[in-house]
Amino acid sequence: MAEEQAPGGLAGLGGMTTGVADAIRAQAASQAKAAALKVEYDTLSGYQNMVKDLLDDLTGSNADHKKLANDTLPAGKLGTGFPEADALFKSYGTVITELQKLSKGLAEQIEGLGIAILTAGKGFAGVDDDTRRRMAAIAKQAEAQYVRERDPYLEEQRKLEASKHAGPTKGGNY
Questions:
Q1: How far apart are CA 66 and CA 96, in angstroms?
Q2: Cβ distance 3 to 12 under 8 Å?
Q3: pTM above 0.70?
Q4: Residues 39, 2: Cα–Cα separation, whole Å
Q5: What is the pLDDT of residues 104-144, one digit of tens each?
Q6: SS3 120
Q7: Residues in the chain with pLDDT < 70?
Q8: Taken in order 102, 105, 110, 113, is the CA torsion positive or negative?
Q9: CA-based Rg of the chain, rounded to a whole angstrom?
Q10: What angle do CA 55, 59, 63 make, to 5 degrees?
Q11: For the segment 49-58, what is each residue's pLDDT rounded down to a tens digit?
């Protein structure tokens, strides 16, 4: 004979176990989210290493921006009246500078994500003051480096909103 289920709880135990079950579900959900953050952290770490390796390759090469800046291969060696050589040197310097910024920014974002993963289970209230200050500094730096015009998600969102407000086109399906 089947045992009767009490409303809001396990067989014959009433609401007493509902809170425990909810707590177990919440803990499982929290652990799943922490695992997802760990995967994201690993992915970002791999990307950061790739950028760092690329930067190391460029920096250690004969085309190192420091060597170019020190006139190892001055534009005059390529001939006079050749503005393309100057443009090439300038572009290379820009690439190196942007790679350095990207590498630093990724390192900070990964550090912040690592802190978030470590504190996910205990909440921000259990974090020491030094870690809180570091997280605040990382967030401030990320905000300072954010360039709204380069955000592909904002462009997608803008297009989606524009299509919602455009209404039906003449001769189209209503």
A1: 10
A2: yes
A3: no
A4: 44
A5: 787 788 788 777 777 766 667 778 899 889 989 999 998 99
A6: coil
A7: 1-17, 36-41, 48, 51-52, 54-55, 58-80, 120-123, 167-174
A8: negative
A9: 28
A10: 120
A11: 776 676 677 6
